[in-house]
Amino acid sequence: MPSLPGINHQRAVKAFKKYGFWVVRENKHITMTNGKRIITIPRANPINPYTMAGIVTDVGLNIEEFKKLL
Protein backbone atom coordinates (compact mmCIF):
# COMPACT_ATOMS: atom_id res chain seq x y z
CA MET A 1 0.00 0.00 0.00
CA PRO A 2 1.52 3.35 -0.97
CA SER A 3 2.03 5.71 1.92
CA LEU A 4 1.25 9.38 2.39
CA PRO A 5 4.09 10.80 4.46
CA GLY A 6 3.93 14.16 6.17
CA ILE A 7 0.20 14.92 6.08
CA ASN A 8 -1.18 16.68 9.13
CA HIS A 9 -4.81 16.47 10.19
CA GLN A 10 -5.74 19.98 9.01
CA ARG A 11 -4.68 19.21 5.43
CA ALA A 12 -6.55 15.92 5.51
CA VAL A 13 -9.75 17.60 6.74
CA LYS A 14 -9.53 20.25 3.99
CA ALA A 15 -9.03 17.57 1.35
CA PHE A 16 -12.01 15.54 2.54
CA LYS A 17 -14.15 18.70 2.64
CA LYS A 18 -13.33 19.20 -1.05
CA TYR A 19 -14.55 15.64 -1.65
CA GLY A 20 -17.92 16.34 0.00
CA PHE A 21 -17.38 15.44 3.65
CA TRP A 22 -18.17 17.72 6.58
CA VAL A 23 -17.11 17.73 10.23
CA VAL A 24 -19.60 16.15 12.62
CA ARG A 25 -17.57 16.09 15.83
CA GLU A 26 -14.16 17.25 17.04
CA ASN A 27 -12.47 15.75 20.09
CA LYS A 28 -9.20 13.84 20.19
CA HIS A 29 -10.22 12.67 16.74
CA ILE A 30 -12.16 14.46 14.01
CA THR A 31 -15.27 12.65 12.80
CA MET A 32 -16.49 13.47 9.30
CA THR A 33 -19.34 12.20 7.15
CA ASN A 34 -20.74 12.63 3.67
CA GLY A 35 -24.17 11.32 4.63
CA LYS A 36 -23.29 7.73 3.71
CA ARG A 37 -19.84 7.10 5.18
CA ILE A 38 -18.29 8.10 8.48
CA ILE A 39 -14.54 8.54 8.80
CA THR A 40 -12.39 9.30 11.83
CA ILE A 41 -9.19 11.30 11.46
CA PRO A 42 -6.71 11.35 14.36
CA ARG A 43 -5.37 14.73 15.48
CA ALA A 44 -1.73 13.96 14.79
CA ASN A 45 0.98 15.89 13.04
CA PRO A 46 1.84 14.06 10.91
CA ILE A 47 -0.72 11.26 10.67
CA ASN A 48 0.80 7.78 10.42
CA PRO A 49 1.13 7.08 6.66
CA TYR A 50 -0.52 3.66 6.86
CA THR A 51 -3.40 5.05 8.89
CA MET A 52 -3.93 7.83 6.34
CA ALA A 53 -3.78 5.38 3.44
CA GLY A 54 -6.40 3.21 5.18
CA ILE A 55 -8.74 6.18 5.65
CA VAL A 56 -8.33 7.19 2.01
CA THR A 57 -9.19 3.71 0.75
CA ASP A 58 -12.17 3.48 3.12
CA VAL A 59 -13.55 6.65 1.53
CA GLY A 60 -13.29 5.07 -1.90
CA LEU A 61 -10.39 7.09 -3.27
CA ASN A 62 -7.02 5.88 -4.38
CA ILE A 63 -3.81 7.55 -3.22
CA GLU A 64 -3.30 9.55 -6.42
CA GLU A 65 -6.86 10.96 -6.32
CA PHE A 66 -6.36 12.00 -2.70
CA LYS A 67 -3.04 13.71 -3.49
CA LYS A 68 -4.84 15.83 -6.10
CA LEU A 69 -7.28 17.02 -3.39
CA LEU A 70 -4.45 18.18 -1.13
Ranges where pLDDT stays below 50 over 5 or more residues in a row are none
From N to C, what is the helix and strand string?
HEEEHH
Helix/strand class = alpha+beta
Task: Give the oligomeric state.
Answer: single chain
Mean pLDDT: 90
Content of β-strand: 15-25%
Helix content: 40-55%
Biggest beta-sheet profile: 3 strands, antiparallel
Number of contiguous helices: 3
Distance between the termini: 19 Å
Radius of gyration: 11 Å
Number of strands: 3
The coarse overall form would be: globular
How are the strands of the biggest sheet laid out side by side?
Answer: 1-2-3
How is the secondary structure organized here?
Layout: H1 9-18, E1 22-26, E2 29-33, E3 38-42, H2 49-59, H3 63-69
Antiparallel strand pairs: 1-2, 2-3
Characterization of the model:
- With 70 residues, the protein is an alpha+beta fold.
- It is 40% helix and 21% strand.
- It has three helices and three strands; from the N terminus they run αβββαα.
- The chain has helices at 9-18, 49-59, 63-69, and strands spanning 22-26, 29-33, 38-42.
- The chain has a three-stranded antiparallel β-sheet with strand order 1-2-3.
- Strand 2 (29-33) and strand 3 (38-42) form a beta hairpin.
- The protein is globular.
- It starts with 8 loop residues before the first helix and ends with a helix.
- 19% of the residues are buried.
- The model has no long low-confidence stretch (mean pLDDT 90).
